[in-house]
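Design a sequence for this backbone.
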């Protein structure tokens, strides 16, 4: 492809991402009457320290995610933490308007050398699996405790407990076996694109995967803390223990429910009302906490990522 044509497509790609990211956030904030009323016309002005702390934890959250990605990238390409942070934000700028945030996988790779970008996709997927694993485990624990506390039925039968343990163990073994699985795939006759994508996971090792799992646990603790602080800020009256149970169930549910990202705030808000509503009648506060966390942890970083991506020098799209 001629250089001038390539430059045109790169500029077009960046422009579309920039416009889509900012347009999406503007649409969510201003077109959703309930959300805009909560943000701009709300009457809650209590305990502002909680809100500031949530904002301060936002970069901590994404720097932890960036460090996890940087660790997993080591066998493929060594990048600095700030580079990884920029890549993570760039991924968010695409993830925000794609189904189930699938665009995040492709969005991060533009900070990598062209030859490593396909491998970077599978590395990103490995990190996502680690985060999903932590979410699933916490969801099982909190869901079990929540159901036992809020229903008359008993959920402690040996069969159910054994099934939960088996599911977690099978998932863990599969996760740490990803490099071996990738190695077996590499011995098959596969298209060149698949081979390059597969190389990212094949080059990982068990030690890196375990570190990624631990970092994922730390990141989960951060955004759970943010959610709890917002529940306090909006005066929901929900205790820390009740919040732990509800948040664990909420994120596990979001993990398994197919979601188009444009509808995610609505889905998250509806589930929050259903789950948290058992412990509080302050529906406005519950909804405000859920949607505010979405804006702080996803919308704002995505906008910053769009700016970063627009300024990033990309030689070729692929």
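Sequence:
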């Amino acid at each position: 492809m001629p250089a001038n044509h390539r430059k045109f497509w790169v500029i077009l790609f960046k422009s579309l991402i920039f416009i889509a990211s900012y347009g999406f956030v503007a649409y969510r904030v201003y077109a959703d009457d309930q959300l805009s009323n909560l943000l701009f016309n709300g009457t809650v002005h209590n305990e502002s320290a909680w809100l500031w702390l949530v904002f301060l934890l936002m970069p901590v959250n994404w720097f932890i995610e960036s460090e996890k990605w940087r660790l997993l990238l080591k066998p493929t390409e060594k990048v600095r933490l700030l580079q990884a942070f920029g890549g993570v934000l760039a991924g968010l700028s695409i993830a925000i308007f794609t189904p189930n945030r699938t665009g995040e996988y492709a969005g991060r790779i533009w900070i990598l050398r062209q030859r490593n970008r396909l491998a970077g996709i599978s590395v990103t997927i490995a990190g996502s699996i680690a985060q999903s694993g932590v979410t699933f485990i916490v969801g099982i624990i909190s869901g079990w405790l929540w159901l036992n506390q809020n229903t008359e039925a008993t959920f402690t039968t040996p069969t159910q407990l054994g099934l939960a343990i088996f599911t977690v163990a099978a998932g863990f073994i599969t996760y740490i076996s990803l490099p071996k699985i990738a190695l077996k795939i590499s011995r098959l006759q596969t298209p060149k694109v698949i081979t390059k994508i597969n190389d990212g996971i094949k080059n990982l090792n068990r030690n890196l995967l375990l570190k990624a799992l631990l970092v994922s646990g730390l990141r989960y603790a951060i955004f759970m803390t943010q959610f709890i602080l917002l529940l306090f800020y909006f005066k929901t009256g929900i205790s820390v223990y009740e919040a732990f149970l509800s948040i664990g169930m909420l994120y596990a549910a979001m993990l398994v429910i197919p979601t188009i990202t444009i509808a995610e705030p609505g889905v998250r808000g509806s589930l929050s009302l259903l789950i948290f509503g058992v412990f509080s009648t302050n529906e406005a506060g519950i909804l405000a906490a859920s949607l505010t966390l979405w804006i702080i942890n996803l919308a704002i970083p995505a906008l910053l990522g769009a700016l970063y991506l627009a300024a990033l020098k990309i030689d070729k799209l692929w």
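Residues 3-311 form one domain.
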